[in-house]
From TrEMBL:
The active site is at 311 (proton donor/acceptor). GO terms for biological process: proteolysis. It comes from the Eukaryota. Residues 30-348 form the Peptidase M14 domain. Residues 1-17 form the signal peptide. This is Peptidase M14 domain-containing protein. Gene3D superfamilies: Zn peptidases. Its cofactor is Zn(2+). The gene is Dyak\GE19721. The keyword Zinc applies. It comes from Drosophila yakuba (Fruit fly). It holds the Pfam family Peptidase_M14. Belongs to the peptidase M14 family.
């Protein structure tokens, strides 16, 4: 990928000879690396200092920053409700980070057309929960848009590209904790492994991983302010939007509200201007399989009245790509995701 424009601190000449620094432009031609994501966020914070604030909310096992971007309309009001979005819990889910960056771009750079979404709400976005795992998953042979089937990750290179967990070593030589099995709600239940060599290893104890601790801090901080409304965690690749509970076979008390806001997103995508729109399904997350230790159950319990897992699609038209969509599809996939999330946000703002 070319260096993002803002890295080159061009000073362009403005109308009256005033220097205007070029602004970050989100590119969908390839998946950003961790460094590119961080630089993109920093560029926004410099160019839009009135609307954007970056916060390092923790560090990964390998000492990378976990950085949230808080987006407002810059009016200084402190009592707004909050939508919190994260992405990239699972290393190989490459489309999730870039979908999160597109949301950021829409709210900051394309502010004018989306400013109604920032009237009474601030958005907090953590685009990369698991930077170590993600960086590892990008460390193999160059991705050449080949179709990768992670169920049959027989080669060393496929095992790298299909990596799921963080990169913290475990006692018996195997590496990594599944961060979305490490939360303190229903920890260890269902589809969750006690074997440190398995992809769904739950960790030594609840919140043993620094990355899940960081997400917990953000969730609890927001819950304590009483401003939290929606938590949305972006994963792939099932093409489903799921609500609590995951760790028990019961539906969230307000499942009807969940279903209503989710349906708004599904309909917006179906009615969007796409040749092969994704046909999302929805339901309680246990309908997939019972899973303990997930962030979405934890957030719901902590006080977010709406808590969703957004599972991006694994196919487009007749092409099934699972976790690694070819780069030429990034643009339309993240655009479609934005249309769904925007519709959900509008519905949420009507009701809460
Ligand atoms: C983390 O953020 C701090 C503060 O912005 C910065 O000084 C440091 O270089 C960052 N670390 C990494 C690994 O990028
Ligand atoms: C898949 O769809 C594309 C675009 O519609 C088409 O060109 C191609 O022939 C299809 N391939 C298969 C195997 O059906
Ligand atoms: Zn996932």
């Amino acid at each position: 990928m070319f260096l993002p424009l803002f890295l080159v601190t061009f000073l362009l000449s403005g109308g009256q000879g005033t220097p205007v620094r070029s602004r970050p432009e989100y590119q969908t031609d390839d998946y950003y690396t961790y460094e590119e994501i961080q630089n993109y966020l920093k560029g926004l914070a410099e160019s839009y200092s009135n609307q954007v604030k970056l916060t390092n909310v923790g560090k990964s096992y390998e000492n990378r920053n976990l950085t949230t971007i808080t987006i407002s309309n810059g009016d200084g009001r402190k009592d707004k409700k909050v939508i919190f979005i994260d992405a990239g819990f699972h290393a190989r889910e490459w489309l999730t980070h870039t979908a999160a960056l597109n949301i950021i771009d829409k709210l900051v750079v394309s502010f004018e057309e989306n400013k109604h979404l920032l009237q009474d709400y601030d958005w907090v976005i953590l685009p990369l929960v698991n930077p170590d795992g993600y960086t590892y998953s990008r460390s193999g042979n160059k991705f050449t848009n080949e179709i990768i089937d992670c169920l049959f990750a027989y080669t060393k290179d496929l095992a790298v590209k299909c990596w799921r967990k963080n990169r913290e070593p475990n006692k018996h030589g195997c590496i990594g904790t599944d961060l979305n099995r490490n939360f303190g709600h229903g920890w260890g239940k269902g589809d969750s492994s006690s074997d440190p060599c398995q992809p769904t290893y739950k960790g030594l104890s609840e919140f043993s991983a620094s990355e899940s601790q960081a997400v917990r801090r953000v969730l609890l901080d927001l819950a304590n302010t009483g401003r939290c409304v929606l938590y949305l965690s972006i994963h792939s690749a099932l093409g489903e939007i799921l609500y609590p509970w995951g760790s028990e076979e019961i539906k969230a008390e307000n499942y009807k509200e969940h279903e209503e806001v989710v349906q708004a997103g599904i309909d917006a995508i179906a009615n969007g201007n796409f040749q092969f729109p994704s046909t999302y399904k929805q339901g309680p997350s246990h309908s997939l399989y019972v899973t303990g230790g997930c962030s979405s159950d934890y957030a719901y319990e902590a006080g977010f009245p709406l808590s969703l897992i957004w599972e991006l699609p694994e196919e487009r038209g007749n092409l099934t790509f699972e976790f690694h969509p070819p780069t030429n599809l990034i643009g339309e996939l993240v655009e479609e995701t934005w249309i769904g999330i925007r519709a959900i946000a509008e519905k949420v703002m009507d009701k809460y």
